[in-house]
Amino acid sequence: MDSTDLLPIGRRVAYWRGRRKLSQQVFADRLGKSKSWVDKVERGVRSLDKVSILQDVAAVLRIDTAVLLGRDAKPAGVTERAGGVERIRAALSTYEIALERPAARRPVLPAERLAREVAHLWTTFQHARYPQVVDLLPQLVADAQRTHVHDPGRGRVPLVEAYRVTAALSVKLGAPDVAWLAVDRAMTAATGDRGLVAAAAVQLGQVLRASGRVRVAKSVMLAAAYRIAPPVAEFVDPAELSLCGTLLVQAALAAARDGDDRTAAELIDEAAEMAARVGDGHDHHRTGFGPTAVELARITAAVEQGDAEEAVARHEKAIKRDGWRWLPAEHRAAYLVDAARAYLQVDDPINAGRVLIEADRIAPAEIRHRPAGRDVLALVARDPAAPTTLVQLAATLGVG
Description:
Number of strands: 0
Largest sheet: none
InterPro entries: Cro/C1-type_HTH, Lambda_DNA-bd_dom_sf, TPR-like_helical_dom_sf
Shape: globular
Domain HTH cro/C1-type: 13-68
Oligomer: single chain
Radius of gyration: 24 Å
Structural class: mainly alpha
Helix content: over 70%
Number of helices: 22
CATH topology of the domain at 3-68: 434 Repressor (Amino-terminal Domain)
GO molecular function: DNA binding
CATH class of the domain at 3-68: Mainly Alpha
CATH architecture of the domain at 3-68: Orthogonal Bundle
Protein name: Transcriptional regulator, contains XRE-family HTH domain
């Protein structure tokens, strides 16, 4: 990394102006600006807030815009993410228990403590602190497996939950093979417990959709949803209803991606009726299920179906709901990436950039560590009307 990559952009302008032996006045004249304007840019008092101006400055300095923005810096997070995925894959592939290998010199965690640690990891994930989750997961998986062997009854739930969060994170990091291994373990460990199976099936739906197996996802999610569906509507367990509704949403999103618009709409409507009973502000089984979550899913389905105008119209209303701010940061930021796609589809890169900046504010790792987020960032940053802040972020991350 060149030392100039660490400088603020105004200092970089001054550095390259000096390299080209241009006075502030000559530089200003060539740009068609005042000397005062140049001085303020170099001191950081005035920002370069338009892509066109950045391009003009780079042209006068005879450098690439990416160099001006620090593009030569090593892409952030790529190596770390790959290494983290490998550590998680290794943790899932040791088979210590099945092969009766000597356990590491680490005490078996009591089931109660393990449950607390798994809950903490879920919370960390929902705050989109993915690097921290990557660091903690390998040891937690090993601990959960050992605890389950020593205390099968009380160790079962935290084991399933450990596998669930592993699958959820692996989908985020673009590692569907690791996610598949984790969710398969979760489903196996949950077998025989209706609620646990339904909870694990939420991540199964995510993995199947991420792998492009949308028809299988729709079929499996429907089977899981109706297995957990309350038999009598008057006696509703909100936790079970949240699982059932979330599974219907998963099935709807799979249907939307498969081009089955009618089924997608019907399933989201059915989920919306359940959400009305649960209400916003709850997080049963880490689903965040409620009316707002279902509305966001309806918007995402519209994006999948190519109905971007409806998606944008609904989006502007959805983010004004009280339930919006009650959703986990991970949920909101992931949704905003989909909203940015909608704005791109209606040829509105300015608002696409605006919602991506908001996503980065809410949960930076959703853009910086999630491949899907980086892909949308690259698309937005290529547009001449993209906000300079996003262009700089794309350059720093090495995308575009």
